[in-house]
Amino acid sequence: MKRVTILGATGSVGSSTLDLIERTPERFEVVALTANSDVDKLAAAAIRTKAKVAVVADPACLEALRERLAGTGTEARAGAEAVCDAARLGVDWTMASIVGTAGLKPVMAALEAGGIVALANKEALVSAGEVMMAAAQAHGTTLLPVDSEHNAVFQCLDRTAPKGVSRIILTASGGPFRRTSIEDMRAITPKQAVAHPNWSMGAKISVDSATMMNKGLELIEAYHLFPVRADQLDVIVHAQSVIHSMVEYVDGSVLAQLGSPDMRTPIAFALAWPERMETPCERLDLAKIARLDFEAPDYTRFPALQLARDALTAGGARPAILNAANEVAVAAFLAGRVAFLEIAAIVADTLSRYDPAAPDSLDAVLAVDAEARVRAVERVKDCVV
Ligand code: NDP
Ligand code: MG
């Protein structure tokens, strides 16, 4: 029996993880499930899986959670600190699928507790990559990437010969506006932006895919996960999302991982690692797909990708500022307070107005994140929709 915890159990990745676990309940013991405020979904999952603990980050939801779990044997807890405590229970396997920097402290707690941490929460690695990787190393924790591109690279990478790797090529679907002109991008609504052509995901990452900031965050994520320099990381637009990423070797060989665009494949890889497990994911029918298309990314229509590349090259506090400003801008866009094209502009302006020293601890990263948010919120106020 593998003892598992899911941080962000009510989200898109969290639900896919539960789906896999519930197909083979004899193989898993669910210890803790966490959410922000979705009491109904959290309680239902906790009851189905007989979880020991269910935690809501929002303390205002504790009473409702207690009521739903009364007499079930699952303990109800609340608060951001309780989420971190749940991450510290010392399980074999933790899914880190909270969205945004809200996941930073819980991911750190899980890394310090040891075992396997399956990481979907890319923002944690973007903001605090150095600190996170050092914590994983210090505590002997295995970090397995769940983000489909990084999971693909993990599967294709020959860790016994890192010098043989010449390039990591991340594929990008290009999102819903791959063919949209800048002129037409002005009027993009939140509803259009969250409608991803290939993947079904939470709202924040869907908007990130639409601006291509997602691919930028993934470049930074890849830099921390794999033993390559920033200039060895490339992006190629591949609209079908069949090839999930590639590793190029010095001899000219390119290894790729393919599959249907279903997050349950990379999640299952992490869940069964180092073995494999069955999934209900649709098998690839290459004859039906017939062709795979590729094109270079357009850094002019998708300036967020360039901002992320620059932040990666500059290093230090830049990725944390980029990420914090992006989270503020995306939330403002989803709330109808700023236009789609303002998202990258808010990130660019926040980066140009704030340039602190490189953070060297989790608290220092959180301080940079907090200050960047204050400045991004100020910048949002200048926007008129
Ligand atoms: P969702 O928005 O669907 O889910 C987010 C989860 O985090 C929910 O369980 C939510 O709880 C919880 N949460 C939100 N805010 C807080 C908070 N302040 N404190 C504690 N918990 C919180 O996101 P996704 O599942 O789409 O994405 C999760 C992460 O995985 C992101 O970092 C994303 O970039 C990454 N990822 C996602 C992919 C996907 O296919 N969805 C693919 C690759 C990476 P509640 O439901 O109560 O709000
Ligand atoms: Mg991805």
Give an overview in words.
The structure is a single chain. The chain folds into three domains: 144 residues, NAD(P)-binding Rossmann-like Domain (Rossmann fold, 3-Layer(aba) Sandwich); 167 residues, no CATH class; 71 residues, Rna Polymerase Sigma Factor, Chain: A, CATH 1.10.1740.10. The mean pLDDT is 97. Helix 5 packs parallel to helix 6. It contains 17 helices and eleven strands. The protein is globular and about 55 Å long. The longest helix has 20 residues. The chain is 46% helix and 15% strand. It is α/β, with parallel strands linked by helices and 385 residues long. Strands 4-3-2-1-5-6-7 form a seven-stranded parallel β-sheet, with helices on both faces. Strands 9-8-10-11 form a four-stranded mixed β-sheet, covered by helices on one side. Helix 1 links the parallel strand 1 and strand 2. The structure holds NADPH dihydro-nicotinamide-adenine-dinucleotide phosphate (NDP) and magnesium ion. The site of NADPH dihydro-nicotinamide-adenine-dinucleotide phosphate has 28 residues, from helix 1, helix 6 and helix 10.
Structural class: alpha/beta
Side-by-side strand order of the widest sheet:
4-3-2-1-5-6-7
Overall average pLDDT: 97
Q: Evaluate the radius of gyration.
A: 20 Å
Which stretches of 5+ consecutive residues score pLDDT under 50?
none
Total beta strands = 11
Portion in helices: 40-55%
Q: What order do the helices and strands follow?
A: EHEHEHEHEHEHEHEHHHHEEEHHHHHH
Q: Characterize the largest beta sheet: strand count, sense, and whether it forms a barrel.
A: 7 strands, parallel
Q: What spatial form do the alpha-carbon principal axes imply?
A: globular
Number of domains: 3
